Each structure stands twice: as C-alpha cells, then as structure tokens.
Amino acid sequence: MKSCSSIFSSIRQRKGVSGAALFLLSASLLSSPSLAADLVPSNYQFGDLRLQYRPPSNNGGEVITKYKIEWDAVTENNDSTSFTPSSDSYGYAEVTNLREEQDIIVSCRSSCTGTFLLSWGGRTTQTPLRVDATADEVETAINYLVQPFNTHPDGSSAIKVSRKANGFAYKWRVSFIGVAGDIGLMKADGDLLVGGGATIRVHEVTAGSSDLYPGAYTNEIQTISVRKRKGFGCESLAGSFALSFEGKVTSQIDVDTSADELKAILEALDTIHSVNVRTDHHTSIGPGDCSSRSWIVTFTNLVHETEQASGDLRELQLYSSSLTNPTVTEVQISENVKGTYPRAFSIIGLVRGLLYKCRVSAYNALGYGVSSSTVSGTPMNQPPAPSHVLLSLPDATLYPESEGTSLKVSWNAADNDGGNTVTGYKIEWYSSLNDLEVQKLTTSSSNGITEVQSIKVSADTSGITGFFTLTFNGETTELIAHDAEADGEESVESKLERLSTVGDVEVTRDLSWASIPNVDFDLTTASNVISRSGGSFIGTLVDVLSSGDTILVGGEVHTVSTVGSTSLTLDAAYSGPSASSIYIHKWSYGYEWTVAFTSHVGEQPLLVANPANNWAGTNPIIEVNREQKGMQPLSGTFRLSHGDESTIAIPFDADELLVKQALEALEDIGEVNVVRHDNNNGYNYFITFLSELGDVQQLTIDDSQLTGPDARARMATLIDGIPPSDYDSAIVPHSSTLMEYKIDNLANGVAYFVRIRGKNAKGYGYAASAPSPMSPIRRPSSPTSVTMLPLSASRIRISWQAPEYNGGASITKYVVQWDTDSSFSSAWVDGFYHERWMEGGMQDGGEMIYCHTFTINPASANIERYGRVLAYNGYKWSAAETSVILDHAAASTPGPVRNFNAFPSSSIGIVLEWDHPAIDDKETCDYAGDGGSAITHYVVEYDSVADFSSPATSVIVSSLDTEFRIGGRDVLSGAESSVLESGGTYYTRIVPFNALGPGVMTSFHSSIGPLVNNAPTAPVVTNAIPASATSVRVDWDTPSLDGGSVIQEYLVEYDVDSNFAKSPRSITVPAASEVHSLQVGSDESDLNVHIIRATVEVTNEVQSIKTAIQGVDEVQKISTTCDDVTAEVQMIVTTAVDTNEEQLVSLVADDIDEIQLLRLEGDSQDEIQSIQVSVQRLNEVQKLGIVISNINTAGNGVESSACMGLNVGDACQDIEDALSGSFTVSFDFDECGGNGGVNYCQLALTEYDADLGIITCSPGFVTDPSSGGNHCVSQPVLHSYSSIEGDAGTLQQVLNNLVDDNGVSFMTSPNMPGKHEAVSVTRQGRIKTKGSCTVDPLGLSPATCLGEYELLYEIAFDAVHTSGDVPPITVVQSDLMIDTASSSYTNIVCPSSHYTLGCEVPVGAALDANHGSFYNGEAGSEAIEYTKGAQPSGFVSLDYECESSVVVLPDSYSMVVSLDGMTATFDDVGFTGNILERKNWCIADN
Prior knowledge:
Radius of gyration: 50 Å
Shape: extended
Low-confidence stretches: 1-34, 1082-1109, 1145-1152, 1154-1160, 1440-1445, 1476-1486
Strand content: 35-45%
Number of helices: 9
Mean pLDDT: 84
C-alpha cells in the first residue's frame, strides 16, 4: 500500500478495508451525481499524484463528515477497475472531519471546594461553576460561550461534555460538535477555588479540522472584547482604544463603534486587505448585570496576499487604551478559530511509470454515497542517475588517429526511468571543477509575540521555607530559594539563564495572592475603611483577616491596620473607583515571578516546577501558568521560480529537505544541496547547485503569501558559478544496445572528469560521475642518453635519462635489459633485466640521470654485451630502440670515497671523515666502487693553498680507516701538534688506491678554517645504575676531542623525563681522570667521588719528508716486468731479561690537623600548601509510576468487595493480584556522567574490580526485548503483591543482575567498598481515587468505573560504582496490565455475577510528568530524574606553591595527627595562630 498526504496536515491511511468499514447501502444514502475528481502528476513532489475533488452537489440530507479515497495500479495482473483490496498496489485513506476536544482539569491535593469561571470568544460563563459541577452544568455554561459560532441549524447543543474523577476533584472532556475548525483554547479562572492546593487548567486533547477537500480552508476568526470588572460599575462602558496588526496601528476605536465602522478601521491598515466584522454586544439590564462589547472579526485577505486563506494569523494586539476606569476595565483579544491554508492532497510513494486509477466516496451519518468517476494518472519524475560509469582509453588499433587525445566513457541505464522513457543523455567533461553557484534565500520579519509564563508559590499560612527547581526542555536549574529575587545574584533570572536551553529572559516578581472566598466587600474612593456587604461565609472578618495582613484591593496593595467583625481599616486611603459586592485578595505568603522569554521565538513549553530541598510550609504550592502564548512572527508560504517554472507553495518554516525537493522537481534543476540556519525571526537557506555548472540564473521568489510583521523573502547570489576548466558536453540519444561514447579532441596528458545525466519528459536527473579522472595518453618515447660503463670485471652500470615525451602520463617505471645477444633473446629472463620503479619524490624528466648496476661472471668479462632501457607510463612501454654496446668489462682503479667531510678539531687540528668507495645506484650514477680490486690505502693531502702547490703534505692512511686527524691536541696527555699553524686555513683531498693504482680524487668542497678551538665532543655514558633508594651512580668516558683546551669540568643532568622536559637538574663535576663516576640523588653531599687510574702518556713519532725540485719536470715511462711475485717471509725474534723494578715511596710531613669547612647549599624549595574541596555524595534517584484508571477501588460488599475498607493511599491486593505480564528495562552504564565527559561509574569499576574491563551497553542489540538478559537489558520484572524488592523477578533484583554486551555482570561487585549492589528500589502500590463501578441503566454498555490506582517505583543509585549523574532507566518493552480474565478481576474487582456486561477496560498511563510509565505497550519510556546525583563524589585537592615560610614547633610541645590524616592538633595555641597567620599571607600573596 502506498500513502497519501496533505501539504499542511496529515490524513489517516489504511491498507485494505476491514469488515467494520463495509456498509449496506439503502435508498436514503447519498443520491447525488458522482463526485467530480481529477488525478494529475504533481509538479511539486517526486513522482506524486495530486488529487482534486469537490463536494457532491447533494449531501443526502446529512452533513458530510469524511471522504474515502481509493487508488490502484493497472498492471498485467490487475486492471484496477475493481479496486481490489488484496492488490499490492491498492491503497486508501480517509479524510475525516475532526472535532475539537479540550479538557478542563481541576487538581486538588486534598479535599477542595469553591467555584471557577470559563471564558471564550469574548464571553464569560454567566454563573460560577462549582468544583463538582455536573457534565450537564458545564455543557450548559459552555454552550452559552460558543453560541455565536454554533453551526447547528436547529440551535441544538454545540457542545458535548463528560465528567471523570481526577483525584479529589474532577476533569471534564469538552467536545465541540457544533463548532467547526481548530478552536482557540478556553480560559479558566480558578481564583475562587478553596483548599487542597486547588488549581485549574485547560488542555487541548484534539485539534479540530474541518477542511475535507482540496482547496478547502478556514478563515481566521478573532474576537475583540471590552468589559469592566464586576462590582466596579460594570453596567456601563466608555472610552476608546487602539489596536495594532503586524506593526501597523489603527485609529481610535470607541466602545460603541459599529461592525461596519470597525471593518473600515481595520481595512485601513496597510497589512489588512479585507475582513468581515459582526458584533456580540451585551447591554446591562440592571444593577449587577455587566455590559460588554465584542466584535467578531473574520480575516479573509491580508493586503499582500494573492489568494484567499490567510492561514493561522497572529492575534491583533492592544496598542493603547483610553477607557474609563482603566484599572478595572480591560480589552481582550482572543482567537476563536485558527485559520488554515487551502488544503491539498497528494498520493505519495507510488511506483513510477505505472498507470494509477483513483476514486472518491463521500460519507455522512447514513453511510457512503456513490463513488466519483474514476480518474487516472501516471507518477513520474526525473530519471535517476545512470550507473557503472567507466572511463577507458579507446582501442588504438581501431582509432590510431586519436590515440592520446580521446577517452571512451561507458555506462548502464538506471534501474528505473522515473516513470517516463529516457530519451537521451548529457555527457559533460572538464579538467577541474571551479566555483559552484551558491544562492541564499532569506525569510524574515520583525518581532512576534513573546512567550510569558508565571511561577506562583503560595501557602495557607506564613512560614514557607526551602527551595524549588525549574526544568525547561530537559535541563534543570540549580536550587532556587522560595523567596528568590527576580534578578541579580542567586535570582530566578540568573538561575534560568544558566540553562543552555533558556537563553535570555526577563523576570519580575510580585506577591502571590489568593481571594478571600464567600465574602463580599464594598469600596469607597478616598476611604480607608472597607465594609463587608455579604457572602455565604458565616463567620466574621476576624476569622479571615488579621492586623498586619497584606491585601490587594481594586488593584492597590494595602496593609490591614485593624479588623472588626464587619469592616476593616487600611493603612492608607483607597484611591481607586468605588465598588460594591466585590472580592478582595490576601497575600498567600509567597511570590509570583513573571518570566518573559525574550530570546525565544514562538510558543514555548511550560516550565516544570518541582519542590526541592527543605521545601516546607502549610500546604505549600508551586504552580506554573502561561500568561501570554508566544507566537512565531513569520507564517504563510512562499514560492521559488526558475525560468518559467515555479515550485510548490513552501511553508515559511520548511526544512532543508522540503526546499531541496521543491527545487529539484523543476525541469531545469537537477540536484541541489540546501542548508538552513536560523536568523532570529526567519531562516537563511544556502542553496548550492550541484548539477548545473557555471553561472546559474538567480532564482526569483514570490513572498506574497508570507504573513507577519514586515514579512518578506529575498534571494541573493553569494558565489557566482564559474564554468569548469576545459568544459564541453555532448547530447547522446538513448540506446538499448550500446551505451558508450568516444570523447575526442582532448588535450594529451590532461586529466578529465566525466559525468552523465539522463533525460526524460521531466528534465535532466541527477548526474553520475566516473570514479576518478583519466588522462588521454599514448606510448612514451624511448629514454635518452643511454650508456654502459664497466665498474669492474664483474660489475657493469647502465645509465639513462627520461624520454623527451612521456605520452601524456608520468613515467611509472623503467626496465633495464642486458644480453650477450643483440636481439635480446633473454630480455625478460630473470638475471637479464631489472625494473626501476619511479618512487615518490623522484622527478620524471629534466636532467636527472638514472642508473642500474648489474653483476656478471668475471670469466665472461671479455664478451660483448648489449644494453637497452624501456620506459612505461602506465599505458604502454616505449619502443625498443637501438641498444648500446660494451666490448668488455675489466678491473680498474677505484671510484671516489663517499661522504667526505672535514672540520676543525681545535685551533691546530683538523679531523677528516669518509666512507669507503662503494656502488649505490640510488646515491650516484657516476663511476664508483673499488674497481674490482680491494682498496690498499688512502692518500690524504692538505695544504694552505687551494691548488695544493705550496707544496701539499701527503699522508698515507690505512685502507681500514675512515677517519684521520691532522695535528690537534691529545685529550689525555695534552700534547699539541705543530704540523698546522694555529688559526690557519687549509684545503684537503683524498685519493683511494687499489692494486691498479690511484682512483678518483675527492676534494673537500670548501676551505677549513680559520681554525679555532671548539667545545669538546660529547662524553659517552658507560653506565647508570641505582646506588640506593634515593641515588643513581653514573659512569662515563673522556671525550675523544677536547676542542683545543683542557677539559675542566663535566655537567651531569638528570630528570625523570627522558626528554629532560619536566624538572631537569644538574651537577657540575671537576675533571680528574679518564674514567669518572658520580652518585646523584636526594642526598647530594657526596659528590666528589672519583675512580683514578694510572695513565701513561704515549707520543707517536711523526716525521715529514719534503722534496723540492727546480726546473722542468722530467717525464719518464717505466715499464716493469717480472715473474710472479713470491712473498718474502722474515722472522724477527726479540729477547730480554724480565727484571722487576722496585721503588720505595716514603712520605715525610709534619703532623698538621686538617681543618675543613662544610658549607651546605640547596635550591630554594617552594612551599606547597594543599586545599581540599570536598563534595557531599548525593545519590541519584529516579522514579517510575503509573496510574490505572477505569478500575473499581470502592467495593461495598454487595456488588463488589474490591479494596473494601481501604482508604486513599492504601495498598490494595485485589487490584495488584489482577496484574499480569511483565516489563523489561535497560540501563546504559557507559553513558554515566551525563554531559560531564567523565564516566564515574566506569572509573569506580576500574579501580575496585579491574578484571571486569570496560563495560559496553548496546540495548538496541538485545536478542529479545521481551525476555532481555543481555546487552544491558534486564530480565523481565514480574509483579507480585507479596514480593519484596530484591526477591527474584523484582525490579531491584533484575537491575543488580544486568550483563553487558560481552556477558559481564557489572551491577553487583563484591570488591566495591560499602554497598556491593548498584541500586536500591522502593515499590509502593496505593489507591489514588476511591471510585466504584456503575451499571449502564439501559443495559447497552459495560459498567463505568471511576476509581484510580497507582503503582510506583523509586530507584536509588546508592553504590560507589553508580555515583554521580547516571542515565535514566528505560522501559524496553511492557505487557504488564490488568488481566480482565484473571480470577481476582472477574470475582472481586468486577464480579461477572453482578456486572453481566463487564466493566470498561482499565487503562494505564504515566502517573504525572515526574514519573515514567511502564504499563502495557510502553517502549522507550524513561524513568524521571527526581534527584540528580552529585558529580564528582569525594574531594579535590588543590596545591598552591608559595614562598617558603617555616614555623618551628618548640621542643616542649607536641602535635597529634588524626587517624585519617586530615587534621592535626597542637598543645601550643600560639603556635597554631602563627601558622594561620603565615598561611593566610602565603595564599593571599600567591
């Protein structure tokens, strides 16, 4: 079945027709001609069908109350003419006339009395209604209120009222059966209710709706009324007033203005085009009968509207008043009927492309009439995006002429065509996407009506104490004192504004007032005496008032000076108008705060007030009322246009999706992205065009249907779209066989993006893009500068440079091939080729030289070898061009050393460093390696001139060495070399030698010098081991270079951080020997500890031979030949007599006493003081609670014995035994901590029961919600009257046995300190309302039962591992309910022997806003937080570092520390005073 929807309202929908929906037709049913209907494709939704029909010309003599709409699709198996309910395509919906329903609810905490008044539409009930008024009495009273709007032609009752018990009072359900539309809320005045914390409120149960066919609408109707307070000369009215609407102000309106005159005044405003006005005046007929003036205004058009139906308008506002006696005369504007926009219906969710038929049937009290003629339509929309879009290179053998300049794109058609044949595709390609078009739609208006609410605290006597809290949109304030100020510190305003959901509010405070019931008074202007004039109260004024009482009289606050039996004296003369037989008000010992939500727009949810800590008094009551309903200033609709097309009428508060859908339904727009942001009184919509590339024509807007003060909408272009680079496109017809296209004339090597959009009669749809861009490419040219170079008899290097042309794509790899065959027969055989991948960072092209060195068998070194290099660009290999030839390989002299470096070691020394010659293709492609013969030695030359002509000094260095020091200073002996001049500048070079002679010389790239002394090189730490619990022993070696001067000392640093970044400390140690050790720690007095070893200075003999020849160098060629060299072996034997040398050391000295001076030094240590801030543990408490209505709680022993002898508040086993079923709950343990970011529950488990690991809860993954037992969902809670919480199956037991996602039981922990179980639960069942069951006297219906029974759970999270703010217990599933088939129910509660038709079915619901429900059918209901857990629990220690200030405790006194270590006591009082004085100084200074 598909669904049906209304643009501005919802309609019910069903699949098929049940038996109860079938009616037998009779001759008295509708006999009108068929309904006129039309079904057309919607321009405004994705594939919807828009239905049009009108009411029949004949309603059959009864009012039409609903229409039935049926539809079905024409398929191969169904021609839809029969509208078969069993068809998969069949669906129907009923458009029903909904009657407004409102509840009048009187609530009392105990027995209450008194009366109340109701008002609506400018009228007030003629006589007060008692607190126990019957349904008929209330019905009569309200019928008077709505009489001007009664639609019944015969004038019969427009209202139907039923009454039910509500605790100690009643509630009345009011059905507006004779007033059409969404009715304004009645107002209730409970000023004269007495006792038990009595309050009254009106609640809308069902919003009325009477628009039954497309195009039907309801005009907004408001009433302007003027009346004077009863008793203040209300028999006459005089004066004038002015109104405003959407920011425009009327001229003065006299109280005697006629309907036509008011119509002219209102239509003179710039914001109102036309209204209809009628009067509902009442003129007094004598004393006590109050006059009133009421004008009923029907809005038909606003000035900027292009069509009728103004919608739900904001109310007219009182601008100014010049009425006589303004303190007791008021102007009220009330909304009688909310206006609506023309109704429109669309059938949505249909299958695109199918032909649907539809018919409509009208219904009245006699049944369904003849159906309309059948209409048909086919839903369609733009085609979806194609699928599997792929880019590839065309086959070069088929298209050789376009190789490197073309791409091929292929795609598949979408799964459906949007309901209309796809005729073609638009293919678009470009190299880069530039700015997309972004346009901004702004709706705005000036301010609307601010929401105003009041919080009233009152009691029966003086002495209210304690605190209360306010909750708004889920957030709760801190504690608010019962007498808190309106603003300032600790005020109601400051506490509310700390909530993130509130924003800015303005709060005022006044005294709270309560009327003195049943006592009438007379007032005289300028007199300070008030006299009693009547009333039903039988006592005297002394019984209700006392000297010093504060009272409210005629709008003035006075203090009572004296009280007599029939009069009282005020502290000052009354200055208001005289009055007779009026009520006065007495201070109710509390306050009333008025809260204006200045930063919120529109109607706001009511604040929720709850008593809190130490709340006490005589019947203290706190209540919240709405004083002024906030109204969104902006309303109505707007349309967007692009080209010749316009969108649906878009609501003023449309979300992003609706605006997106409306735009994408236009033929010229494919895909857009819409983002919405608030802009105070309206919205900003940012529209990004995704399908339309480049500069897009700016949308235009029609805001004529937007309503509100200064309502308007504007379009602006934020970013002008820029066409993509290298953009082009082609239109390709649809093909059923081959969907591909070759894109020609592209730039070689440029990456192109390609996307495709299908087209049908509705325009182009969404685009589908190739997964990634692709470049048209071809084969690269061959690499250049290919050469072969022998490095030895077994190593040959091939080098090359990049191709001149890469074919349009980067070269990804090269292959180097070598062979002894010129045809390269072994080219791709292992051992004859090497692939060189171009790694990240390697350049492709330019002057870069690449190389590869391969190994051959030295025995084949004289064989000719051929080499070549191929390049690959990801598409093809380059052509195999002519190879290079190498005639043979042979050993040679060495290549250069690697990484040659030189630096001064001191002012007379230089250090040279290098690496041995080696072959590394990644390091260099020049000649390298040892030439095939081992390095025999190195020759190092240095000179003071760059051309080494002074002459240079040469030194032969071992082939094993990679370092050589020239000159310098010996770090141990201190001997200094003279081979270099101090401060001189030198040049150096090195040549490697092998058996074949000198290799490639390497010169250091710059001069070395001028030589200067440097810092020593780093010592090497050889050991660091603990020496004790507070010290570490550190050993190190002397540095290899001292930088040119004696090492004087060492700096030893130590830290607890390896990066020496936390708190590094250091010790300076004098240099003493080659090996040092040091002990560091908290005791640093033994620093001068050394291990001294004997050392012998060894001075190497250094000889230098220089030769100088003048004249012309002789060049001689010497050829030497010899037989194979036989190595000469010589043996040298040395002998010596080993004679031990003996030395005698004698110490001679005078005996002189050693005198040592010990000086202790230490770093300044900051004094650290700790302040401990403790937080009292406050356990979280949550509540679940249900009230079961329609139940017998007052058996009399005759009809029933249910709860017999029990009172309100008592538990009743009869009812609880009738309960059956169970419920499961979940507790999301890993959400503990609320918004604080710290899960204190998990922290406690980790500390005390670490083996449990991290607890994870996923209640949504529970295997069976009804049985639970895993994923933090409990096993079923089974109710039993006799069970005690903690027994098997109770809520406490199942919660303490929860297991998480991994099967870990975490709510009960034996290792937890204190209480092991996570929660304690208190359960209570009690009678809420005593009520019996009454048999229907006609014997047609079950008995009506008026009793109510409550079942409550209070869950306390009182263990360490459920500390702080914990998540709510959530009801997962429940089938717990009163079992009407149980023995307890059929024999005791509703005995079938007496109640033969049974009793009405009991129903269960949440007890109130402070309790979560767990009755049958609940899923997702949450326990309500009664007390938020304190978080964190425990204490926080704060450390303060201050200047040290030590106070010494005298030896004769002592200190005693408490067992917990938290307090200390001293027997010297003066000492503790001294400490406090210094401590205070320290903290203040810090």
